[in-house]
Amino acid sequence: MPKAAFSDQQLADYLQARKAMVEKALRGLIKRGPAGELADAMRHSLMAGGKRLRPVLLMAAAEASGMPASKVLRAACALECLHTYSLIHDDLPALDDDDLRRGKPTCHKAFGEATAILAGDALLTLAFQLMAENSLALRRDAEALRLLALAAGYQGMVAGQVVDIASEGKRVAPATLDYIHAHKTGDLLAASLECGAVLAGAKPAARKALLGYGRHVGLAFQIADDILNIEGSAKKMGKAVGSDAARKKATYPAVHGLSAAKARLGRETRAGLASIRPLGPQAAPLAALARFVAARDH
C-alpha cells in the first residue's frame, strides 16, 4: 500500500482540527423549544462522539479542490446529521435492535422508540436545510442537494438497508453482498467526497477522481467494520461486537472468509489511493485517511 505524504501525527492533527470545527458547529445547531425532549434526543445522538468521518471527507475533498474547509462547514454538518439519523433508525428494535452506540445508550433506549424515530426524522430534514444554507452558488448547492438525496434515498442508503435486512439468515451471492455494502455504507461516504468537490467547483476530472476514491474507500470502510465486528472490542468501537454473526448478517467474512475479506480490504484501499493520485499533494489528507480506514482498530 503506498505510503501517504502525511505522517501518523500529521493525520491525527488534521483529524482533530477538522473534527473540532464540526463539533463546534454542531453544538449550536439544535435549539430547545416546546418539543424539548425531541431536541434532547437529537443532541444525545448527534453529540455522542464518533470520528466525524463523513464531514471530514467532505472538507478534505473541498480542500483538495482548492476551497478552504470553513467554506463548506454547514454542508459538512449536513452529512453528520444525515449519518446520525441513519444510526438512530438502524439501532431501533425493528432493525438491528442495538443497545449501545458510540459508547452510550442508543437513542431509543434513552428516550423511547417514538421519540427516537422522530429524532431521526428531524435530523434527516435538518441535513437538507443545512446543505441548502451553505450558499456558495445556487447551481453548486442544488447539485450537492441532489447528490445527498440520491445517496440517502431509495436508490442509495435505504435500498442497501432493506436488502441487508432481507438477507439476514440467508446465503447471499457475492453480488448481493457488494450491493448491500455499496449502498448501505458506501453511497453516503462517496457522496461526502462528491459533494465536497461540487461545492468547491472542482473540474470534472477531479470530481471523478474524488468519487472513485469515495466508492473504493467507502467499501473498504464497511469491510473493515465487518472485520472489527469479529476481531474488535466493544470498548474501542463503542458498540457491540459479534452482533453480525448472531444476526446471521451478510458480511464479507461470512461470505468470503476472514482472510479473503482482509485481502479485499487491501485491494479497495489501494484502488482508492490510485483514484486520487492525479490530484497530487492537495490530496495528501485523503490518502492518509484511506490508510486510517484500512488500519483502524477502534
Characterize the structure shown.
It is a single chain. The chain has one domain (8-295): Farnesyl Diphosphate Synthase (Orthogonal Bundle), CATH 1.10.600. 70% of the residues lie in helices and 1% in strands. The chain is built from 15 helices and 2 strands. It has helices at residues 8-27, 36-46, 53-64, 73-90, 107-111, 113-132, 138-152, 157-167, 174-199, 204-231, 234-237, 243-246, 252-256, 258-276, 284-295, and strands at residues 100-101, 104-105. The protein has a two-stranded antiparallel sheet with strand order 1-2. A hairpin with a 2-residue loop joins strand 1 (100-101) and strand 2. 45% of the residues are buried.
Record the SSE blueprint.
Blueprint: H1 8-27, H2 36-46, H3 53-64, H4 73-90, E1 100-101, E2 104-105, H5 107-111, H6 113-132, H7 138-152, H8 157-167, H9 174-199, H10 204-231, H11 234-237, H12 243-246, H13 252-256, H14 258-276, H15 284-295
Antiparallel strand pairs: 1-2
Helix pairs in contact: 1-3, 1-4, 2-6, 3-4, 3-9, 3-15, 4-6, 4-9, 7-9, 8-9, 9-10, 10-14, 10-15, 14-15
